[in-house]
Amino acid sequence: MADGALQEPILRVQGLKMYFPIYKGILRRQVGEVKAVDDISFEIFEGETLGLVGESGCGKSSAGRAILRLYDVTAGTIKLNGVEIAGMKGDALRRQRPEMQMIFQDPQASLNPRMTVGAIISEPLTEHRKLSKKETLARVFELLDAVGLSRDFVNRFPHEFSGGQRQRIGIARALALNPKFIVCDEPIAALDVSIQAQVVNLLEDLQEKLGLTYLFISHDLSMVRHLATRVAVMYLGKIVELAPRDLLYNDPKHPYTEALLSAVPEADPTAEAGRDRIILEGDVPSPAHPPKGCNFSTRCPKVMDICRLKTPEFKQLDDGRHVACHLMDQ
Predict the structure, then answer these.
(1) Beta strand ranges found along 173-260 (DSSP E)
(2) Rg (CA), the chain
């Protein structure tokens, strides 16, 4: 893992907000907003993998897409390799695209069914590089080799492949422009369990060979433990805990992190039988109407009066982790 004291982060996100307006009526009047991402801050250093975890609907994917500027952000700053991209538009943003790419969750939905594999992988090259047809084909073959697919697949269409093979095509497309930073948006969630390990091993091999930096978004805590260097836990649009992997898994500080980790099954039947599982009461509040104070206050087993009144500060502890919880002030 890179040492943050010695180098600048490849990505620095500060105060990022991504709100979606809610419209009603014939006149389409705005009556509110969904706070999908609500004031999150973190850094990712070159060559590391930051895992972003949380239950469905917590804003993980919205955060990933906002960071890559697939959405116009509501507020905050995003610095990629020292360049501020949160407010970029048009040609300036287009020039930054080769630096950052995304691997999508559903490989079938993210590939154009009317395009061949060769056309899909070469599309970024056609858009951003001035290469001859021969050079483009050579690069496509190189990328197919890198992700473990046969060069004979170049003229086939996406429907002719399995889910795992389609995801490899998506990975090859993401690598086409030699990006250093890739957002992996639940890249194994739509795959069979038997194929998931192969894709994860491929991502690890590519990271080692090409010096890639990942933001790995997932709800699979076991896979994140295997892949990530540090882990950020998200709940209802906010990051509630951010810590080095082993520190977070062995000694979680936030009550929501404790509850999440208690739900991960143990391989050892004896350990599984003797484990205390934390069952959270109630449903996740709507991001359109988050509760006053701490977002987790409506479900937290350790809730205090202050939790329902004041939003906890996301602050650094002595061991280097960051936690947003009033219990840390006790």
Answers:
(1) 181-185, 213-218, 230-235, 238-244
(2) 21
